[in-house]
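Ligand-bound model needed. coenzyme A.
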Amino acid sequence: MSLVIKKPSSSQIYSFFISLSDTALYNFSIYPRANRKSVALRLSKALPKDKFQKIFGAFYMGKMVGYSFLKFSPKSTDKNICQFGIVIGESYQGKGYGDVLSKKTIDWAKNNKFKKIWLTVYSDNLGAIKLYKKIGFQTEGIFMYNWYSHGKFRHTISMALFFDKEPSLERKRLWGNLSKMQDHR
Ligand SMILES: CC(C)(COP(=O)(O)OP(=O)(O)OC[C@H]1O[C@@H](n2cnc3c(N)ncnc32)[C@H](O)[C@@H]1OP(=O)(O)O)[C@@H](O)C(=O)NCCC(=O)NCCS
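Prediction:
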């Protein structure tokens, strides 16, 4: 039976986040100090009504096994870009569900005229980085020691997927200019 991708209800979001492992929540959550219950409550109450987020649930045999989102900005300057995030329940990882859910989420963004999807991922989350590279995300930058939680600092990698641009040459030119400036210090 294949994966069904659809908008989850509040109670499905709540049950999914309540059942997530600490590791999955730790890598996904933007609320590092919150406990599982408060994250589940916050997401299940706010998200289904949030007009600046499109959310997707991945269901296997009727059970929600994954969740992804696209977050938009109300600013007109940001109208072409959106932020992406994903989490698959730990016992369902490694079965290709992350790949399917990511691609469906990205297809939605592409079909809705977005030009760029960006995300952030911790530098030690190698499985996620591998997934993102596999589906076409490029590294945009590394933010050093910018996240402190659970007693340690983590670096954050910013990645992006472009639908109608190939930024490699322009990026190389900018990095070249910057390193020349540093040489003159
Ligand atoms: C990252 C995550 C979404 C991947 O989902 P998944 O369903 O396990 O991934 P898939 O089985 O679809 O794998 C797709 C690809 O991702 C990569 N990948 C995923 N997990 C990996 C791991 N643990 N180690 C190495 N590569 C991995 C591989 O390239 C894989 O393709 P391949 O099997 O052809 O090599 C999932 O592990 C997860 O939810 N983690 C916790 C939350 C999280 O880290 N979210 C991302 C926050 S930025």
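The chain has six helices and seven strands.
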